[in-house]
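Ticket #4471: structure export looks truncated?
Reporter: QA, pipeline team
Priority: medium

Steps to reproduce: submit the single chain below to the structure queue and open the exported record.
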Amino acid sequence: MSLTGVNLLLLMGSMVPLPAPKVVSSLESLEVSNSDEGRSGFQIILKTNRKGLLARLDYPLLKSSQVKLSNRVVIVVTFKLPIPRVLMDGIITNIQLSPGGKEDGDRIVITGEDVSVMMDMEEKIKEHPGQPELVIANKIIASYAKYGLIPTVIPPPVADIPLPIERIPVQHGTDLEYLNEMAQRYGYVFYIKSGPMPGMNTAYWGPPKRIGMPQSALSVNMGINSNVESINFQNDALAPALVKGSVQDRRLNKKLPLKTFASKRLPPLAREPLLFKSFSKIRKEIPKDIDGLSYAEAFARAQGQTDKSVDDVVVATGEINSLKYGKVLEARGIVGVRGVGDNHDGMYYVKEVRHVISKGNYNQHFRLTREGSGTITPVVRT
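Actual output as written to the record:
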């Protein structure tokens, strides 16, 4: 399917997805949502009918071997530059038929989630003796290699191997739930990023990625250079929190004070949190889930609690015109914003992008976050 300056490729199949021209020719709209929290998903809406002799038994699309529950779906877009961008590599989890009558026509709605849904299929009670989170995360991800997962696991701030005579990590729940549970201890995230090529996926477990080449800037109020259709900013003074409490160190058998002083998200994206005055009236929380830990482990979790709290202090939501932007805005990276003033210009973390595609249109709805107001860079990448 070809839009103005954009090509869409849709692959579907049981394990080896192949081009699906019949599905593309019936496409009314397609939506893909990519986020750094929770599973990403997609929805494909098809127009259909039962005209013709062969269609009297059933809708032809529903008889297709490519439109089946649990089939794999790969969605790829290519702009003017011949570099394919994989928006989604997922699994069909729901197929809905909506006979609409003569006026609206009939529709088939195909809904699915990224391949991490396969990590959420079986609940387990499983011990991981003598294994820290780094080893457990790599082990779990490796067991899903048939989905093309390439693990990228960032070590936690503290590497403390649990001695079996002291404690044994026990998993209660699915593999996906346990990966997310371990990530949340340190303010980390876990997600599956589709690509870079069809059939490949990156399984990322670590802090939000703020390091790397910024994406092309989102431009507002800049005449012909503007590529943002709408944007809205919110600043939440109650979001950031410091942690203050105590922990009974299991090895020293002493009660020690526990306190955090600032976020350690690096590099910083906003100017305001760097100023001492921004923390003068900040909320205080007690440390969570630290019973039975050493002081180093407890402090790492408390620091993760503070780091997580500042992620959404400033949130920008909006929509860009994809044809003016000229490329895919990728979630889980950084992007510059310009044209909205010193308080809100600068770098942001791209938390979520929702791609909405139909014939003749391709818009991207975004959610950007950072830890405060004020730009710390005079220029952004255009």
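Status: closed, not a bug. The export was complete when the record was re-opened. Leaving a note from the reviewer for reference: The CA atoms of residues 241 and 360 lie 45 Å apart.
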